[in-house]
Amino acid sequence: MKTIAIARRALVCFTLAVMSARSAPERPVIYQLFVRTFGNANETRKQNGTLAENGCGKFSDIGVKAIGEIRKMGFTHVWLTGVLEQASGTAYPNRPADDPNILKGIAGSPYAIKDYFDVCPDYAVDPNTRIDEFKALLARCEKGGLKVIIDFVPNHVARSYASDVKPSLSFGEGDDRAAFFSRDNHFYYLRRSDPGEGPPLKLPTAGKPGCNGLFAPETEYGRVTGNNVVSWSPGNGDWYETVKLNYGHDFTSGRDTSSLPGPDAEPTTVPKTWRTMDEIIRYWQEMGVDGFRVDMAHMVPMPFWKWMVKRAHDRKGDVFFMAEAYDNDPAKLTEGHVLDELLKAGFDAVYDDPVYDVLEGLYDSGKWANDLDALTFTSDRFHQSLRYAENHDEVRLANPQHWGGLGMKVGRPVSAVLFAMGKGPVMLYNGQEVGEPAIGSEGFGGDDGRSSIFDYGSMPEFNKWTNRGKFDGGRLSPEQKELRAWYAELLGELKNPAFTKGEFYGLNHANNSNPAFGRIHGETASGHWLYAFLRRDPESKQAYLVVANFHGSESLKGVRLKIPDDARKWLMRESQDDWVFDSRFHSDWTGLIKAPELSSEGLLLPELAPCSAWLIEIR
Questions:
Q1: pLDDT tens track for 447-498
Q2: Is the CB of residue 559 less than 8 Å from the CB of residue 604?
Q3: How many angstroms separate the CA atoms of 618 and 284, rounded?
Q4: Alpha-carbon distance 347 to 190, whole Å?
Q5: Which fold has domain 1-23+354-380+400-410+501-619?
Q6: Are strands 542-549 and 530-537 parallel, antiparallel or unpaired?
Q7: CA nearest 67: which of 142, 136, 150?
Q8: What is the pLDDT of residue 573?
Q9: pLDDT at 15
Q10: Are 394 and 452 in contact (CB under 8 A)?
């Protein structure tokens, strides 16, 4: 879109969003650390290689030095991704390998949980002491000043789920398999009349090495897949390795979950899955885990979240919940905007996938920077959104097949805008800070631009920073060192009150018709590659201008940014004297302009290099 036509913008030219009353004392700055690859110094990287061939990261790799470097970079939280025990092709004493028919990759998906009360034995030096080794990691993180987040995967579990830590709390125990849906069943069971020609369950793995498409326990009965497929023959694109959990609502009947219990219901009165999940959260809270990243939270009924999050907060007031959720998913269990509903249910933050999609679309699907404007009018959600430029589900910024093939530099304007626009949590994925490109196929996922979560391996460029366990960046190129330092500087600057407590005022709408606002190649409207906004904190009166040039090869010269009179009032700076603009980030530029000229001639900005971002304090 070249312009954003929103009627309300004619009357309101800024977004004023108020944070929820319950907020963390420190803005969460989250480092997503995938344990399997983070500390793995093995550089064999054989496609479809085993653990013995390709190695695996350990809890012990995340030592005092690594934690110190993460904290030094500005992070407050570490999300230890993939910690819970998952279905896997690797065998251990008293723990046989899982059937390859129900696996994605030899290592297995970290989102096909096999025991919610255990951790992955791959990550332990001694698999028999894996819980103790994880507890030691928790203690190191606490001592090093990092709060720990782990995954919570409430919608589905591995087909082979069986808890040996707490057998009495295993999902499926006591279920009535004759019923598709029963309030106190853990699973949904297929009927002979359902699509797929009846039993046995036929998986799309037939013909793959070691596979016949059958899973022995589900020859006489079958269960619905994690992505709600009611079929005896799920497809290759389905979450066939997982089974859907039942929260007392028949998802085939629609989205109305109002009949479910309320937030103050006694445990004895709620569906069985609610009680089991509450015990799981309690278990990890008591161990010292500080928060949870909740997978596909929109597929679980909102009444459950209101009940469960409340109970978790009753146990520990500052427990942190962030939700992966997508409002455009037909599987969501609410008629309202699911991100808003999750915040109402008690979540601290929700994924900002819409803003991420616009920024990726700048390079891959013809979006304009102006398209961000519509997403700044989202009330409380705007400042409670978790913003990221990478995570394990998304393609790498530096991958040559994506993000315009621009390489690691594209992360600068993208991350600066994402991280600076709101006061909610921000997140960086391990490897992003050194331009990990995820080139080639590691195994199950193929060459898809992502660092595989299904296979054993290591990250080639990230290994140059970990440097065989030294965690000193000793093998990084100068460009990679500069990028990592840039991210650290950005995170440091974003600790200022204007960003942690301040409000947002977008400036693109005031410059759409301004020909000096970054137009190139005969464009007749502005705001394609250039984005600008203000942040200000009323209490400290600190104010910043943020400007980003998203273009990969064009420098923007002679840019004049108009700041309308309403913005001056919003900034609480109505003086007619000179205004000073002082770059505080990656530059020593200073601009000077008389107040009346801001809305007429506009502030003359310095040359904006390709893929650059500026954080400029307004004095």
A1: 999 999 999 999 999 999 999 999 999 999 999 999 999 999 999 999 999 9
A2: yes
A3: 45
A4: 33
A5: Immunoglobulin-like (2.60.40)
A6: antiparallel
A7: 142
A8: 77
A9: 35
A10: no
